[in-house]
Design a protein that fits this description.
This protein is 25% helix and 26% strand. 40% of the residues are buried. An 8-stranded mixed sheet has the order 3-2-1-4-5-8-7-6. It contains 6 helices and 8 strands; from the N terminus they run H-E-H-E-H-E-H-H-E-H-E-E-E-E. It has 204 residues and is of the alpha/beta class. The termini are far apart.
Length: 204
């Protein structure tokens, strides 16, 4: 994996060992950030199921003001911390080690040790862009996260926020995600090979 553009362009990233984590491909990340190009500068970015942190780090590279990473798997957390350290990123982010549902409901276990939290006490707790990429076959994770973002925790989303979900793209399964989750309505669906991106915005 590599950073596509911005401050850390072409720098390589580590992926967690094994098959439990499926990193977003370079090609799909490029597609995602091409769509987000006009809104990434200065944005508060939330990277759910962040794995190695490739998407959130790409956001920082392209000028996001802050990124909150949410991940619970120890190997993925180790890779995420290693990638941030190797790139020399010491501020503008927080790491939340725990489940996405717990984070969204406000009962997350904040990963306090280390410079990522000690030096950044005032990072935004509301977000302009939210990216989520749970394991493709975990339909319940998609449903829980999107329903919370479109309902009980809608206040986490700033006006005009976008929520983007990566999911399986072939075999008709791109339609497994609903068109609406509470206040969230799908506005765009991009399919690229085996993967797809669903973009959601709030509606009244």
């Amino acid at each position: 994996m590599r950073i596509i553009a911005g401050q850390f362009r072409s720098r390589t990233l580590l992926a967690p060992p094994g098959l439990a984590t499926r990193p977003t491909s370079d090609r799909l990340r490029e597609t995602l950030f091409n769509v987000l190009a006009s809104s990434i500068e200065g944005a508060a970015f939330l990277d759910l199921y962040s794995g190695s942190g490739a998407v959130g780090i790409e956001a920082l590279s392209r000028g996001a003001a802050s990124v909150a990473f949410v991940e619970k798997a120890p190997p993925a957390l180790a890779a995420l911390r290693s990638n941030l350290a190797r790139l020399g990123i010491v501020g503008g982010f927080r790491i939340h080690s725990g489940s996405v549902a717990h984070f969204l409901r406000g009962s997350e276990k904040e990963d306090r040790p280390g410079p990522e939290t000690a030096q950044q006490p005032s990072l935004s707790q509301t977000f302009d862009l939210v990216f989520l990429d749970p394991p493709y076959d975990h339909a319940d994770e998609y449903s829980i996260a999107l329903r919370l973002l479109g309902g009980d925790v809608r206040a986490l989303l700033n006006p005009g926020a976008l929520v983007i979900a990566e999911h399986r793209g072939k075999g008709g399964s791109a339609q497994q995600l609903d068109e609406r989750y509470g206040a969230l309505e799908r506005t765009r669906l991009l399919v690229q090979g085996d993967a797809a991106l669903s973009f959601y915005a709030t509606h009244e």
